[in-house]
Write a structure and sequence with these properties.
The structure holds two protein chains of two kinds. Chain A has 14 helices and no strands. By secondary structure, chain A is mainly α. Chain A has one domain: Orthogonal Bundle (MetI-like fold). In chain A, helix 4 runs parallel beside helix 8 and helix 13 runs antiparallel to helix 14. Chain A starts with a helix and ends with a helix. Chain B is mostly helical. Chain B has two domains: 50 residues, no CATH class; 208 residues, MetI-like (MetI-like fold). Chain B has 15 helices and no strands. Chain B is globular, with a radius of gyration of 24 Å. The chains are: A mainly alpha, B mainly alpha. At the A-B interface, helix 2, helix 4, helix 5, helix 6 and helix 7 of A face helix 1, helix 4, helix 5, helix 6 and helix 10 of B.
Protein backbone atom coordinates (compact mmCIF):
# COMPACT_ATOMS: atom_id res chain seq x y z
CA UNK A 1 0.00 0.00 0.00
CA UNK A 2 2.95 2.32 0.47
CA UNK A 3 3.50 2.51 -3.30
CA UNK A 4 -0.07 3.62 -3.64
CA UNK A 5 0.56 6.49 -1.28
CA UNK A 6 3.79 7.46 -2.94
CA UNK A 7 2.31 7.43 -6.44
CA UNK A 8 -1.12 8.30 -5.15
CA UNK A 9 -0.68 11.90 -6.12
CA UNK A 10 -1.83 11.97 -9.70
CA UNK A 11 0.32 14.96 -10.69
CA UNK A 12 3.50 13.47 -9.30
CA UNK A 13 2.78 10.19 -11.06
CA UNK A 14 2.09 11.98 -14.34
CA UNK A 15 5.42 13.82 -14.29
CA UNK A 16 7.25 10.63 -13.39
CA UNK A 17 5.72 8.87 -16.41
CA UNK A 18 6.50 11.84 -18.64
CA UNK A 19 10.04 12.48 -17.42
CA UNK A 20 12.05 10.10 -19.67
CA UNK A 21 10.36 11.25 -22.87
CA UNK A 22 10.39 14.94 -21.94
CA UNK A 23 14.07 14.91 -20.96
CA UNK A 24 15.05 13.16 -24.18
CA UNK A 25 12.94 15.52 -26.29
CA UNK A 26 14.43 18.51 -24.49
CA UNK A 27 18.02 17.39 -25.06
CA UNK A 28 17.79 15.91 -28.56
CA UNK A 29 15.00 17.86 -30.23
CA UNK A 30 14.39 21.21 -28.58
CA UNK A 31 18.01 22.00 -27.73
CA UNK A 32 19.34 21.34 -31.26
CA UNK A 33 16.40 23.33 -32.62
CA UNK A 34 17.36 26.35 -30.51
CA UNK A 35 21.05 25.72 -31.20
CA UNK A 36 20.47 25.92 -34.95
CA UNK A 37 18.85 29.34 -34.50
CA UNK A 38 21.68 30.62 -32.28
CA UNK A 39 24.53 29.04 -34.27
CA UNK A 40 23.24 30.53 -37.51
CA UNK A 41 24.41 33.93 -36.25
CA UNK A 42 27.92 32.68 -35.39
CA UNK A 43 31.08 31.54 -37.12
CA UNK A 44 30.93 28.17 -35.31
CA UNK A 45 32.92 25.35 -36.92
CA UNK A 46 32.84 21.65 -36.05
CA UNK A 47 36.50 21.66 -35.07
CA UNK A 48 38.52 24.85 -35.11
CA UNK A 49 41.43 26.42 -33.28
CA UNK A 50 39.79 29.85 -33.60
CA UNK A 51 37.20 31.07 -31.08
CA UNK A 52 33.61 31.29 -32.28
CA UNK A 53 32.38 34.79 -33.00
CA UNK A 54 28.94 36.31 -33.38
CA UNK A 55 28.76 37.52 -36.95
CA UNK A 56 25.17 38.72 -37.18
CA UNK A 57 23.44 38.03 -40.45
CA UNK A 58 26.60 37.26 -42.41
CA UNK A 59 25.76 33.53 -42.78
CA UNK A 60 22.33 34.36 -44.16
CA UNK A 61 23.72 36.98 -46.52
CA UNK A 62 26.26 34.51 -47.87
CA UNK A 63 23.60 31.79 -48.08
CA UNK A 64 21.19 33.94 -50.08
CA UNK A 65 24.05 35.09 -52.26
CA UNK A 66 25.11 31.54 -53.12
CA UNK A 67 23.86 30.20 -56.44
CA UNK A 68 24.37 26.64 -55.19
CA UNK A 69 21.84 27.19 -52.43
CA UNK A 70 19.20 28.50 -54.84
CA UNK A 71 19.90 25.66 -57.21
CA UNK A 72 19.37 23.10 -54.43
CA UNK A 73 16.19 24.84 -53.32
CA UNK A 74 14.94 24.96 -56.91
CA UNK A 75 15.64 21.25 -57.31
CA UNK A 76 13.60 20.53 -54.19
CA UNK A 77 10.68 22.54 -55.55
CA UNK A 78 10.95 20.91 -58.98
CA UNK A 79 11.10 17.49 -57.37
CA UNK A 80 8.04 18.26 -55.24
CA UNK A 81 6.06 19.78 -58.12
CA UNK A 82 6.58 16.68 -60.25
CA UNK A 83 6.61 13.93 -57.64
CA UNK A 84 3.59 14.99 -55.60
CA UNK A 85 0.92 14.91 -58.34
CA UNK A 86 2.53 12.01 -60.22
CA UNK A 87 3.03 9.76 -57.22
CA UNK A 88 -0.39 10.56 -55.72
CA UNK A 89 -2.19 9.94 -59.01
CA UNK A 90 -0.37 6.65 -59.57
CA UNK A 91 -1.00 5.61 -55.96
CA UNK A 92 -4.72 6.33 -56.33
CA UNK A 93 -4.82 4.45 -59.63
CA UNK A 94 -3.11 1.41 -58.10
CA UNK A 95 -5.38 1.57 -55.05
CA UNK A 96 -8.46 1.50 -57.29
CA UNK A 97 -6.93 -1.43 -59.20
CA UNK A 98 -6.24 -3.54 -56.12
CA UNK A 99 -9.50 -2.58 -54.42
CA UNK A 100 -11.42 -4.85 -56.72
CA UNK A 101 -12.53 -8.13 -55.18
CA UNK A 102 -11.23 -10.61 -57.72
CA UNK A 103 -9.17 -13.80 -57.26
CA UNK A 104 -5.49 -13.41 -56.32
CA UNK A 105 -5.79 -9.63 -55.90
CA UNK A 106 -3.96 -9.84 -52.56
CA UNK A 107 -0.84 -11.09 -54.35
CA UNK A 108 -0.77 -7.93 -56.46
CA UNK A 109 -1.35 -5.78 -53.41
CA UNK A 110 1.67 -7.35 -51.67
CA UNK A 111 3.84 -7.02 -54.76
CA UNK A 112 3.06 -3.33 -55.26
CA UNK A 113 3.90 -2.61 -51.67
CA UNK A 114 7.13 -4.63 -51.66
CA UNK A 115 9.57 -1.87 -52.73
CA UNK A 116 8.54 0.15 -49.65
CA UNK A 117 10.30 -2.38 -47.40
CA UNK A 118 13.48 -2.44 -49.50
CA UNK A 119 16.06 -0.03 -48.06
CA UNK A 120 16.44 3.11 -50.20
CA UNK A 121 20.20 2.59 -50.58
CA UNK A 122 19.59 -0.86 -52.06
CA UNK A 123 16.94 0.56 -54.39
CA UNK A 124 19.49 3.12 -55.62
CA UNK A 125 22.14 0.46 -56.22
CA UNK A 126 19.78 -1.73 -58.27
CA UNK A 127 18.56 1.19 -60.38
CA UNK A 128 22.10 2.40 -60.95
CA UNK A 129 22.78 -0.99 -62.53
CA UNK A 130 19.64 -0.89 -64.69
CA UNK A 131 20.34 2.67 -65.84
CA UNK A 132 24.00 2.29 -66.80
CA UNK A 133 25.16 4.20 -69.83
CA UNK A 134 25.23 3.09 -72.56
CA UNK A 135 24.81 -0.63 -71.96
CA UNK A 136 22.21 -0.82 -69.15
CA UNK A 137 19.02 -2.82 -69.39
CA UNK A 138 16.71 0.18 -69.56
CA UNK A 139 18.63 1.65 -72.49
CA UNK A 140 18.39 -1.66 -74.32
CA UNK A 141 14.65 -1.83 -73.68
CA UNK A 142 14.06 1.72 -74.88
CA UNK A 143 16.24 1.28 -77.94
CA UNK A 144 14.43 -1.93 -78.73
CA UNK A 145 10.99 -0.41 -78.30
CA UNK A 146 11.79 2.68 -80.42
CA UNK A 147 13.86 0.84 -83.07
CA UNK A 148 16.95 2.78 -81.93
CA UNK A 149 15.27 6.14 -82.48
CA UNK A 150 15.76 7.02 -78.82
CA UNK A 151 18.81 6.35 -76.73
CA UNK A 152 21.06 5.27 -75.34
CA UNK A 153 20.47 7.89 -72.66
CA UNK A 154 22.87 8.90 -69.91
CA UNK A 155 20.16 8.84 -67.26
CA UNK A 156 22.21 9.98 -64.29
CA UNK A 157 24.97 11.87 -66.09
CA UNK A 158 22.87 14.19 -68.19
CA UNK A 159 22.09 17.53 -66.54
CA UNK A 160 18.46 17.66 -67.60
CA UNK A 161 17.77 13.92 -67.19
CA UNK A 162 19.31 13.26 -63.78
CA UNK A 163 16.57 14.83 -61.66
CA UNK A 164 13.67 13.21 -63.58
CA UNK A 165 15.49 9.88 -63.22
CA UNK A 166 15.75 10.31 -59.47
CA UNK A 167 12.06 11.22 -59.44
CA UNK A 168 11.17 7.95 -61.20
CA UNK A 169 13.26 5.88 -58.80
CA UNK A 170 11.67 7.61 -55.81
CA UNK A 171 8.18 6.95 -57.14
CA UNK A 172 9.00 3.30 -57.82
CA UNK A 173 10.09 2.87 -54.21
CA UNK A 174 7.46 4.99 -52.46
CA UNK A 175 4.19 4.67 -54.36
CA UNK A 176 3.09 1.50 -52.54
CA UNK A 177 2.94 3.41 -49.27
CA UNK A 178 0.43 5.95 -50.57
CA UNK A 179 -1.44 3.19 -52.38
CA UNK A 180 -2.19 1.59 -49.01
CA UNK A 181 -3.35 4.92 -47.56
CA UNK A 182 -5.66 5.45 -50.55
CA UNK A 183 -6.89 1.86 -50.33
CA UNK A 184 -7.96 2.45 -46.75
CA UNK A 185 -9.67 5.68 -47.83
CA UNK A 186 -11.52 3.93 -50.65
CA UNK A 187 -12.76 1.21 -48.35
CA UNK A 188 -14.30 3.79 -46.03
CA UNK A 189 -16.56 5.12 -48.75
CA UNK A 190 -19.95 3.48 -48.37
CA UNK A 191 -20.87 1.04 -51.14
CA UNK A 192 -24.45 2.29 -50.93
CA UNK A 193 -23.37 5.62 -52.41
CA UNK A 194 -22.17 3.88 -55.56
CA UNK A 195 -25.31 1.77 -55.63
CA UNK A 196 -27.52 4.85 -55.44
CA UNK A 197 -25.48 6.63 -58.11
CA UNK A 198 -25.83 3.69 -60.48
CA UNK A 199 -29.58 3.62 -59.97
CA UNK A 200 -29.58 7.31 -60.92
CA UNK A 201 -27.66 6.37 -64.08
CA UNK A 202 -24.26 7.82 -63.17
CA UNK A 203 -21.45 6.50 -65.37
CA UNK A 204 -18.03 5.37 -64.14
CA UNK A 205 -16.43 8.79 -64.53
CA UNK A 206 -19.30 10.54 -62.73
CA UNK A 207 -19.05 8.06 -59.88
CA UNK A 208 -15.34 8.73 -59.60
CA UNK A 209 -15.78 12.50 -59.85
CA UNK A 210 -18.72 12.91 -57.47
CA UNK A 211 -18.32 10.04 -54.99
CA UNK A 212 -14.75 8.76 -54.93
CA UNK A 213 -12.91 12.08 -55.12
CA UNK A 214 -14.94 13.95 -52.46
CA UNK A 215 -14.89 10.84 -50.26
CA UNK A 216 -11.11 10.84 -50.35
CA UNK A 217 -10.70 14.53 -49.44
CA UNK A 218 -8.86 13.98 -46.16
CA UNK A 219 -6.80 11.19 -47.66
CA UNK A 220 -5.73 13.53 -50.47
CA UNK A 221 -4.62 16.19 -48.02
CA UNK A 222 -2.64 13.69 -45.98
CA UNK A 223 -0.95 12.16 -49.02
CA UNK A 224 -0.16 15.54 -50.59
CA UNK A 225 1.39 16.94 -47.43
CA UNK A 226 3.47 13.92 -46.47
CA UNK A 227 4.74 13.54 -50.03
CA UNK A 228 5.64 17.25 -50.22
CA UNK A 229 7.55 17.10 -46.95
CA UNK A 230 9.34 13.91 -48.06
CA UNK A 231 10.29 15.73 -51.27
CA UNK A 232 12.00 18.43 -49.24
CA UNK A 233 13.86 15.85 -47.16
CA UNK A 234 15.31 14.23 -50.29
CA UNK A 235 18.88 13.11 -49.58
CA UNK A 236 19.71 9.39 -49.81
CA UNK A 237 18.93 9.03 -53.52
CA UNK A 238 21.03 12.00 -54.61
CA UNK A 239 23.93 11.19 -52.28
CA UNK A 240 24.17 7.57 -53.46
CA UNK A 241 23.41 8.04 -57.16
CA UNK A 242 24.81 11.41 -58.22
CA UNK A 243 26.43 13.17 -55.23
CA UNK A 244 24.25 16.10 -56.23
CA UNK A 245 25.71 16.21 -59.73
CA UNK A 246 26.15 16.64 -62.57
CA UNK A 247 27.12 20.22 -61.74
CA UNK A 248 24.62 20.48 -58.91
CA UNK A 249 21.70 19.48 -61.12
CA UNK A 250 20.40 17.09 -58.46
CA UNK A 251 21.67 18.75 -55.30
CA UNK A 252 19.06 19.26 -52.59
CA UNK A 253 18.68 21.40 -49.52
CA UNK A 254 19.42 18.57 -47.10
CA UNK A 255 22.51 17.59 -49.07
CA UNK A 256 23.59 21.23 -49.13
CA UNK A 257 23.31 21.30 -45.32
CA UNK A 258 25.19 17.99 -45.08
CA UNK A 259 28.07 19.17 -47.26
CA UNK A 260 28.41 22.54 -45.50
CA UNK A 261 28.08 21.22 -41.95
CA UNK A 262 29.75 17.83 -42.13
CA UNK A 263 32.21 17.88 -45.00
CA UNK A 264 33.26 21.54 -44.81
CA UNK A 265 32.78 21.72 -41.01
CA UNK A 266 30.96 25.07 -41.33
CA UNK A 267 28.43 24.50 -38.57
CA UNK A 268 27.28 28.14 -38.33
CA UNK A 269 26.68 28.40 -42.05
CA UNK A 270 24.96 25.01 -42.24
CA UNK A 271 22.76 26.07 -39.31
CA UNK A 272 21.54 29.08 -41.29
CA UNK A 273 20.61 26.73 -44.14
CA UNK A 274 18.95 24.39 -41.60
CA UNK A 275 16.82 27.24 -40.26
CA UNK A 276 15.60 28.00 -43.79
CA UNK A 277 14.89 24.30 -44.32
CA UNK A 278 12.90 23.95 -41.08
CA UNK A 279 10.93 27.12 -41.91
CA UNK A 280 9.94 25.72 -45.31
CA UNK A 281 8.75 22.45 -43.78
CA UNK A 282 6.85 24.33 -41.05
CA UNK A 283 5.19 26.50 -43.67
CA UNK A 284 4.01 23.46 -45.62
CA UNK A 285 2.58 21.96 -42.42
CA UNK A 286 0.81 25.19 -41.48
CA UNK A 287 -0.72 25.51 -44.95
CA UNK A 288 -1.91 21.92 -44.56
CA UNK A 289 -3.60 22.70 -41.25
CA UNK A 290 -5.29 25.73 -42.79
CA UNK A 291 -6.69 23.65 -45.63
CA UNK A 292 -7.71 20.96 -43.17
CA UNK A 293 -9.62 23.43 -41.01
CA UNK A 294 -11.34 25.07 -43.98
CA UNK A 295 -12.40 21.71 -45.35
CA UNK A 296 -13.95 20.88 -42.03
CA UNK A 297 -15.81 24.18 -41.94
CA UNK A 298 -17.32 23.46 -45.33
CA UNK A 299 -18.79 20.23 -44.03
CA UNK B 1 -17.90 -1.81 -58.26
CA UNK B 2 -19.15 -3.79 -61.21
CA UNK B 3 -16.80 -5.09 -63.86
CA UNK B 4 -16.52 -2.34 -66.45
CA UNK B 5 -13.51 -3.94 -68.07
CA UNK B 6 -13.29 -7.53 -69.26
CA UNK B 7 -11.61 -9.38 -66.43
CA UNK B 8 -8.77 -10.44 -68.74
CA UNK B 9 -7.84 -6.83 -69.52
CA UNK B 10 -7.93 -6.15 -65.82
CA UNK B 11 -5.39 -8.85 -65.11
CA UNK B 12 -3.16 -7.60 -67.93
CA UNK B 13 -3.01 -4.15 -66.32
CA UNK B 14 -2.34 -5.74 -62.94
CA UNK B 15 0.43 -7.88 -64.42
CA UNK B 16 2.02 -4.91 -66.17
CA UNK B 17 2.54 -3.12 -62.85
CA UNK B 18 3.60 -6.32 -61.12
CA UNK B 19 6.33 -6.73 -63.74
CA UNK B 20 7.40 -3.09 -63.31
CA UNK B 21 7.81 -3.62 -59.57
CA UNK B 22 9.47 -7.01 -59.95
CA UNK B 23 12.02 -6.43 -62.73
CA UNK B 24 14.59 -4.63 -60.58
CA UNK B 25 14.30 -7.21 -57.81
CA UNK B 26 14.66 -10.14 -60.19
CA UNK B 27 17.67 -8.54 -61.89
CA UNK B 28 19.29 -8.00 -58.50
CA UNK B 29 18.79 -11.63 -57.55
CA UNK B 30 19.95 -12.99 -60.92
CA UNK B 31 23.07 -10.82 -60.98
CA UNK B 32 23.96 -11.79 -57.44
CA UNK B 33 24.07 -15.45 -58.55
CA UNK B 34 26.61 -14.87 -61.34
CA UNK B 35 30.12 -15.53 -60.14
CA UNK B 36 31.77 -14.35 -63.34
CA UNK B 37 31.91 -10.57 -63.63
CA UNK B 38 32.44 -10.79 -67.39
CA UNK B 39 29.18 -12.71 -67.67
CA UNK B 40 27.41 -10.00 -65.64
CA UNK B 41 28.63 -7.39 -68.09
CA UNK B 42 27.68 -9.44 -71.14
CA UNK B 43 24.21 -10.23 -69.79
CA UNK B 44 23.28 -6.86 -68.37
CA UNK B 45 21.72 -5.43 -71.52
CA UNK B 46 19.71 -8.45 -72.59
CA UNK B 47 17.02 -10.82 -71.48
CA UNK B 48 19.77 -12.85 -69.80
CA UNK B 49 19.88 -10.20 -67.06
CA UNK B 50 16.79 -11.89 -65.61
CA UNK B 51 18.24 -15.26 -64.83
CA UNK B 52 21.42 -17.03 -63.95
CA UNK B 53 21.86 -20.19 -66.02
CA UNK B 54 24.65 -21.48 -63.77
CA UNK B 55 23.72 -20.08 -60.36
CA UNK B 56 26.62 -19.83 -57.98
CA UNK B 57 26.76 -18.71 -54.38
CA UNK B 58 30.35 -17.51 -54.71
CA UNK B 59 29.36 -13.83 -54.40
CA UNK B 60 27.45 -14.58 -51.23
CA UNK B 61 30.42 -16.36 -49.70
CA UNK B 62 32.69 -13.46 -50.49
CA UNK B 63 30.24 -10.91 -49.02
CA UNK B 64 29.58 -13.08 -45.96
CA UNK B 65 33.30 -13.50 -45.36
CA UNK B 66 33.91 -9.81 -45.86
CA UNK B 67 36.18 -9.77 -48.90
CA UNK B 68 36.51 -6.28 -50.31
CA UNK B 69 34.88 -4.85 -47.19
CA UNK B 70 38.08 -4.44 -45.18
CA UNK B 71 37.39 -8.07 -44.16
CA UNK B 72 34.26 -7.06 -42.24
CA UNK B 73 31.65 -9.75 -42.88
CA UNK B 74 28.15 -8.65 -43.87
CA UNK B 75 26.72 -10.18 -40.70
CA UNK B 76 28.59 -7.57 -38.67
CA UNK B 77 26.58 -4.78 -40.31
CA UNK B 78 23.36 -6.72 -39.88
CA UNK B 79 24.19 -7.08 -36.21
CA UNK B 80 24.84 -3.34 -35.92
CA UNK B 81 21.54 -2.45 -37.60
CA UNK B 82 19.62 -4.94 -35.47
CA UNK B 83 21.17 -3.60 -32.26
CA UNK B 84 20.43 0.01 -33.24
CA UNK B 85 16.90 -0.46 -34.61
CA UNK B 86 16.01 -3.01 -31.92
CA UNK B 87 17.10 -0.67 -29.13
CA UNK B 88 15.29 2.32 -30.61
CA UNK B 89 12.08 0.34 -31.00
CA UNK B 90 12.17 -1.39 -27.59
CA UNK B 91 13.13 1.69 -25.59
CA UNK B 92 10.89 3.86 -27.77
CA UNK B 93 7.81 1.75 -27.11
CA UNK B 94 8.44 1.96 -23.36
CA UNK B 95 9.31 5.68 -23.10
CA UNK B 96 6.69 6.93 -25.56
CA UNK B 97 3.86 4.80 -24.21
CA UNK B 98 4.66 5.93 -20.65
CA UNK B 99 4.48 9.57 -21.71
CA UNK B 100 1.25 8.94 -23.60
CA UNK B 101 -0.19 7.14 -20.58
CA UNK B 102 0.29 10.25 -18.47
CA UNK B 103 -1.15 12.49 -21.18
CA UNK B 104 -4.21 10.33 -21.86
CA UNK B 105 -5.05 8.75 -18.53
CA UNK B 106 -3.92 11.10 -15.75
CA UNK B 107 -5.18 14.52 -14.71
CA UNK B 108 -2.60 17.15 -13.89
CA UNK B 109 -2.06 20.85 -14.53
CA UNK B 110 -0.50 21.58 -17.93
CA UNK B 111 -1.80 18.41 -19.55
CA UNK B 112 -3.63 20.10 -22.42
CA UNK B 113 -0.64 22.31 -23.15
CA UNK B 114 1.73 19.33 -23.22
CA UNK B 115 -0.52 17.45 -25.65
CA UNK B 116 -0.52 20.32 -28.14
CA UNK B 117 3.21 20.81 -27.56
CA UNK B 118 3.96 17.19 -28.49
CA UNK B 119 1.72 17.49 -31.56
CA UNK B 120 3.61 20.64 -32.61
CA UNK B 121 6.94 18.81 -32.27
CA UNK B 122 5.83 16.20 -34.81
CA UNK B 123 6.47 18.57 -37.70
CA UNK B 124 10.08 19.46 -36.82
CA UNK B 125 12.15 17.56 -39.41
CA UNK B 126 15.21 15.74 -38.08
CA UNK B 127 17.25 16.77 -41.12
CA UNK B 128 17.09 20.35 -39.91
CA UNK B 129 18.59 19.42 -36.54
CA UNK B 130 21.35 17.12 -37.77
CA UNK B 131 24.14 19.71 -37.85
CA UNK B 132 23.65 21.21 -34.36
CA UNK B 133 23.13 17.69 -33.04
CA UNK B 134 26.41 16.72 -34.67
CA UNK B 135 28.19 19.53 -32.84
CA UNK B 136 26.54 18.44 -29.60
CA UNK B 137 27.44 14.73 -29.78
CA UNK B 138 30.93 15.73 -30.88
CA UNK B 139 31.28 17.62 -27.59
CA UNK B 140 29.92 14.60 -25.70
CA UNK B 141 32.64 12.49 -27.37
CA UNK B 142 29.94 10.17 -28.69
CA UNK B 143 31.24 9.62 -32.21
CA UNK B 144 31.40 6.13 -33.64
CA UNK B 145 29.23 4.43 -31.06
CA UNK B 146 25.92 2.63 -30.84
CA UNK B 147 24.37 5.09 -28.43
CA UNK B 148 24.87 8.09 -30.69
CA UNK B 149 22.67 6.22 -33.15
CA UNK B 150 20.10 5.17 -30.54
CA UNK B 151 19.56 7.68 -27.74
CA UNK B 152 18.53 10.73 -29.82
CA UNK B 153 15.76 8.72 -31.49
CA UNK B 154 14.07 7.04 -28.52
CA UNK B 155 11.59 9.81 -27.69
CA UNK B 156 9.43 10.26 -30.77
CA UNK B 157 6.55 12.78 -30.81
CA UNK B 158 4.56 10.97 -33.48
CA UNK B 159 4.72 7.68 -31.55
CA UNK B 160 3.62 9.46 -28.37
CA UNK B 161 0.69 10.84 -30.35
CA UNK B 162 -0.28 7.40 -31.72
CA UNK B 163 -0.19 5.92 -28.20
CA UNK B 164 -2.08 8.92 -26.84
CA UNK B 165 -4.92 8.47 -29.33
CA UNK B 166 -5.19 4.77 -28.57
CA UNK B 167 -5.09 5.16 -24.76
CA UNK B 168 -7.72 7.87 -24.96
CA UNK B 169 -10.23 5.43 -26.40
CA UNK B 170 -9.89 2.93 -23.55
CA UNK B 171 -12.82 3.56 -21.16
CA UNK B 172 -11.80 5.81 -18.26
CA UNK B 173 -13.86 3.76 -15.78
CA UNK B 174 -11.14 1.09 -15.92
CA UNK B 175 -8.77 3.52 -14.17
CA UNK B 176 -11.23 4.26 -11.39
CA UNK B 177 -12.08 0.61 -10.79
CA UNK B 178 -8.41 -0.32 -10.55
CA UNK B 179 -7.67 2.60 -8.23
CA UNK B 180 -10.45 1.53 -5.91
CA UNK B 181 -8.89 -1.94 -5.85
CA UNK B 182 -5.65 -0.34 -4.65
CA UNK B 183 -3.58 -0.57 -7.83
CA UNK B 184 -0.73 1.90 -8.28
CA UNK B 185 -0.47 3.99 -11.47
CA UNK B 186 2.42 1.82 -12.60
CA UNK B 187 0.30 -1.30 -12.13
CA UNK B 188 -2.53 0.27 -14.12
CA UNK B 189 -0.12 1.12 -16.92
CA UNK B 190 1.66 -2.22 -16.89
CA UNK B 191 -1.13 -4.68 -16.11
CA UNK B 192 -4.20 -2.94 -17.54
CA UNK B 193 -3.34 -0.55 -20.36
CA UNK B 194 -0.34 -2.22 -22.02
CA UNK B 195 -2.00 -5.65 -22.40
CA UNK B 196 -4.89 -3.91 -24.21
CA UNK B 197 -2.53 -2.04 -26.53
CA UNK B 198 -0.93 -4.66 -28.74
CA UNK B 199 -2.29 -3.14 -31.98
CA UNK B 200 -0.77 0.29 -31.31
CA UNK B 201 2.50 -1.23 -30.06
CA UNK B 202 2.76 -3.13 -33.34
CA UNK B 203 1.99 0.02 -35.32
CA UNK B 204 4.66 2.07 -33.55
CA UNK B 205 7.21 -0.74 -33.74
CA UNK B 206 6.70 -1.26 -37.48
CA UNK B 207 6.71 2.42 -38.40
CA UNK B 208 9.84 3.02 -36.31
CA UNK B 209 11.59 -0.05 -37.76
CA UNK B 210 10.91 1.08 -41.33
CA UNK B 211 12.14 4.58 -40.52
CA UNK B 212 15.37 3.62 -38.76
CA UNK B 213 16.26 0.58 -40.85
CA UNK B 214 16.49 3.12 -43.67
CA UNK B 215 18.26 5.82 -41.74
CA UNK B 216 21.23 7.05 -43.74
CA UNK B 217 22.14 10.72 -43.21
CA UNK B 218 22.85 10.45 -39.48
CA UNK B 219 24.94 7.21 -39.48
CA UNK B 220 26.82 8.61 -42.47
CA UNK B 221 27.89 11.56 -40.31
CA UNK B 222 28.59 9.84 -36.99
CA UNK B 223 30.18 6.50 -37.92
CA UNK B 224 33.73 6.23 -39.21
CA UNK B 225 34.68 2.57 -39.10
CA UNK B 226 32.81 -0.65 -39.78
CA UNK B 227 32.48 -1.51 -36.06
CA UNK B 228 29.18 0.32 -35.46
CA UNK B 229 28.21 1.13 -39.04
CA UNK B 230 24.68 0.06 -40.07
CA UNK B 231 23.73 -1.83 -43.24
CA UNK B 232 22.55 1.26 -45.15
CA UNK B 233 25.90 3.07 -44.90
CA UNK B 234 27.87 -0.15 -45.44
CA UNK B 235 25.86 -0.81 -48.61
CA UNK B 236 26.63 2.64 -49.96
CA UNK B 237 30.33 2.38 -49.05
CA UNK B 238 30.61 -1.04 -50.64
CA UNK B 239 28.83 0.25 -53.76
CA UNK B 240 31.12 3.27 -54.02
CA UNK B 241 34.38 1.35 -53.60
CA UNK B 242 36.42 0.71 -56.76
CA UNK B 243 36.81 -1.72 -58.38
CA UNK B 244 33.10 -2.38 -58.37
CA UNK B 245 32.21 -6.04 -58.64
CA UNK B 246 28.51 -6.13 -59.54
CA UNK B 247 28.05 -9.73 -58.50
CA UNK B 248 29.25 -8.93 -54.98
CA UNK B 249 27.35 -5.64 -54.84
CA UNK B 250 24.09 -7.36 -55.77
CA UNK B 251 24.68 -10.16 -53.27
CA UNK B 252 25.23 -7.51 -50.60
CA UNK B 253 22.09 -5.68 -51.78
CA UNK B 254 19.95 -8.80 -51.72
CA UNK B 255 21.15 -9.87 -48.27
CA UNK B 256 20.47 -6.32 -47.04
CA UNK B 257 16.88 -6.38 -48.35
CA UNK B 258 16.18 -9.87 -47.08
CA UNK B 259 15.52 -9.31 -43.33
CA UNK B 260 12.77 -6.71 -43.83
CA UNK B 261 11.30 -8.63 -46.77
CA UNK B 262 10.98 -11.76 -44.64
CA UNK B 263 9.44 -9.84 -41.75
CA UNK B 264 7.08 -8.13 -44.20
CA UNK B 265 5.84 -11.35 -45.76
CA UNK B 266 5.25 -12.93 -42.34
CA UNK B 267 3.54 -9.95 -40.71
CA UNK B 268 1.99 -8.44 -43.83
CA UNK B 269 -1.37 -7.73 -42.26
CA UNK B 270 0.30 -5.81 -39.44
CA UNK B 271 2.40 -3.79 -41.88
CA UNK B 272 -0.63 -2.71 -43.86
CA UNK B 273 -2.51 -1.94 -40.65
CA UNK B 274 0.34 0.28 -39.39
CA UNK B 275 0.54 2.30 -42.59
CA UNK B 276 -3.21 2.83 -42.50
CA UNK B 277 -2.99 3.97 -38.88
CA UNK B 278 -0.27 6.49 -39.71
CA UNK B 279 -2.50 7.89 -42.45
CA UNK B 280 -5.69 8.16 -40.44
CA UNK B 281 -3.95 10.16 -37.76
CA UNK B 282 -2.36 12.70 -40.08
Amino acid sequence: MSTKHFLGNESTAAWAFLAPALILLLVFLITPFIMSLVLSFTSQRLVSPLPTKIIGLRNYIRLFGDGGFWQALRNNFLFAVVVVPLQSALALFLAILVNKRIPQIKIFRSLYFMPVVIPMVVVCVIWYFLLMYPEGLLNTLIQGATFKHIGPLDWLGNRSLALPTIILISIWQGVGFQMIIYLAGLQEISAELYEAARIDGANLWQQFRYITMPGLRNTHIFVLVTTTILAFKLFTQVEVLTQGGPLGATNTLVRYIYVAGYRELKVGYASAASVVFVLIVLMISIIQRRIFVEEHEVE
Amino acid sequence: MRHYLPIGVYYIILLFFAVAFLIPIVVMLATSLKSNELQVMNDMASIRAFWAPHPSLANYWSVLSGQGMGSTPWVRFLFNTVVIVGSIVALGVLVNSMAAFALARLRFPGRAFLVSFVVALIIIPFEGLAVPLLLMVNRFGWFDSYYVQIIPFIAHPFSIYLFYQFFNKIPKELNEAARVDGASWWQIYRKLIIPLSHPVIATVAILQSLEYWNSFLWPLMVTQGPEVRPLSVAMSTFFGQPPRNWGDVMAFAFLTSLPLLIVYFIFQRWFIQSIVQSGLKG
